[in-house]
Amino acid sequence: MKGCTIVSQVILVHTRGKRRSSIVRLLLASCCLSVGAQSHAQDEFQVLLKQGFELHQQARFTEAIPVLDRARKLAPNDYFANLLLGIDLLRSGRATEAIPRLELAAQVRPAEEFPVEYLGEADAELGRYPSAAQAYQQAILRSHNSEQALEAWAGFALERYRHISADLRATQEGIAVAQRLQQGATHPDRVVGCPAMLAPFERKLAIRHPRLDTEVAYQLSVCYALEAGRAEQQLQTGAQDLAAVHQLRGDVLLRLKNDAVAAEAEYRQAVAIHPNDPGLLESMAEAQLAAGEPAAAEASAKAALAIDPHRREALRTLAELAMNNRDYDHALPPLRQLVAEVPGDQAAAVELARALAETGEPAEALRILAPALAAGYPDEKGALHALMAHTLRKLGRGDEAVVAETEARRLSDAFQTRSKDGTFVSVDAHQ
């Protein structure tokens, strides 16, 4: 915009999608008001952009959105207004609305990596994994393998590996493939046939939805493990931010090697460098939870949320701790927030239904649980159908309860049979 110099100094510590993911800290220098004469609209734009950015820095994303939107309307093609608005919409659980803003920012500055990285995060949140993979890899190309882009790509790759592995273990057909995947991920460099761009692989996997193509899932997951390993090696050799190296090492240990204790040690070294990074704190909380340190996990998760109340993995950690302790009242707030901010998170929704059923709200529990089970949410042991039967009886719907109880018994019997045969291993600790 004429008469105004926006000085941009961008330092990115990328947020991770699951866990996410980690908040993106975008440090932009304040928009400088020009010494020369400006129009009233230009003055108003600069003031709004500065206000919006200050709210963004304080993680007050929902408050920043209307301010930044007013700025954007005054300058529809402004890079910073669209980028910041897109980020804050994404942070507020409004990924669909964030995408047009981020796409425009990416068009305005086709050499910048940041808008496409956030596009990758938004697409991943919406389950649009081919687009997400393409965006993250485009960011690497735009940035010429920058430290931030490599870290973001590795984070996404590890999340996809974890999610696909969980999907495989949710079905009897996929159990053997998941076990083979664990072995393959240990030495992904021995696998041949990984394409340079993984978006086509993701599209091939999506064709069979909702029935998972186990072989494509295996190949794609191992390729993601390989990409994460390559990124880790590149960061180790040239990273300026050692915290990023420790974080990625921790992610690899936690996701690929299931070594939560070693992962926690890596995260702790990263936190020593950046003690107020909520993404690092929430990653450490997850590792501490997996390592059997609930008190430490709770402290780390709460520390992350004190800095950024939208940290989703920290919310998940607190919810899981409360559910494990059967403290359903304390599980409700983080679960409600997760469901509100990530509408497509079926696992969080089902956990919310369980907590609601345990706290005397069967109608609301059933409203969430029934459509999830109807859509095929995994219930290997039949526990969720038993819960649905219980809530139906509380609501006086006895005939429907009998149907749910019958299905619960069928699933339980089938699970017991598979367990005796040694052909099934469940990963759902709550069932």
Overview of the structural elements:
With 431 residues, this protein is mostly helical. Among the domains are: 22-98, Serine Threonine Protein Phosphatase 5, Tetratricopeptide repeat (Alpha Horseshoe), CATH 1.25.40; 345-431, Serine Threonine Protein Phosphatase 5, Tetratricopeptide repeat (Alpha Horseshoe), CATH 1.25.40. The protein is 70% helix and 0% strand. The chain has helices at residues 40-57, 61-74, 79-91, 95-108, 114-125, 129-143, 147-169, 172-186, 199-207, 214-238, 242-255, 260-273, 278-290, 294-307, 312-324, 328-341, 346-358, 362-374, 383-394, 398-421. The model is unreliable at 1-37 and 424-431 (pLDDT under 50).
